[in-house]
Every structure is written in C-alpha cells, then in structure tokens.
Amino acid sequence: MKVYILTPEKTLYEGEAKAIIVPGTHGQFEVLDRHAPIVSSLTKGSVQLTDEKGQKHDFPISKGFIEVMQNEVNVLVRQG
C-alpha cells in the first residue's frame, strides 16, 4: 500500500509499506494492505510503519488524522 505521512511543514514518509500502526483516539490500530476505507482522528503517541523491506520507522506525533482509501494511506500529523 502507498503511505504518505505529512506535517504542515514537510513530508515525513512517502512510499510503500506492509503495515502501519497508529494511536487512534479510541485506541491503537493497525492498517494492512487492502484495508477497508476508514477515517480516524489520532492522539499523542507514535506512528509505527513497516516498509516493504521490513525496516521499521517510528514517528512521534501530538495529534492528527488518518485516511485509508483504495490502498492508499494519508496520515496528517503534528509533531511535538
């Protein structure tokens, strides 16, 4: 799946990923390839991403939103 992790200032990640774990407002959840469409708010925590090569990436956030649609994931966040 294609993943974009963006702040108002810059792009933190753009590329393919196997999985992404996000701190949803009602609890942490994981998005995998071909996940059903969803829009959710995010709370303070960490966005954890596993890329196509199996490498793990960690992005601390203060809040944000995630949108999953047609195997594309857009994560709009504030860091801090």
Blueprint of the fold:
Blueprint lengths: L1 E5 L4 E14 L2 E6 L5 E5 L2 E7 L4 E6 L1 E7 L2 E7 L2
Parallel strand pairs: 1-8
Antiparallel strand pairs: 1-2, 2-3, 2-5, 4-7, 5-6, 7-8
Q: What CATH architecture would you give? A: Sandwich
- The secondary-structure element order is EEEEEEEE
Number of strands: 8
Strand content: over 45%
- Name of the top-level CATH class: Mainly Beta
CATH superfamily, by name, is F0F1 ATP synthase delta/epsilon subunit, N-terminal
Regions with pLDDT < 50 over 5+ consecutive residues?
Answer: none
- Helix fraction bin: under 10%
Kindly name the structural category: mainly beta
Number of domains: 1
Radius of gyration: 11 Å
Give a verbal description of the structure.
- This protein has strands spanning 2-6, 11-24, 27-32, 38-42, 45-51, 56-61, 63-69, 72-78.
- It has no helices and 8 strands.
- The chain has one domain (2-78): Sandwich (ATP Synthase, domain 1).
- With 80 residues, the chain is mainly β.
Features:
ATP Synthase, domain 1; mainly beta
In brief:
With 80 residues, this protein is mostly beta strands. It has no helices and 8 strands. Strands 1, 2, 3, 4, 5, 6, 7 and 8 form an 8-stranded mixed sheet that branches.
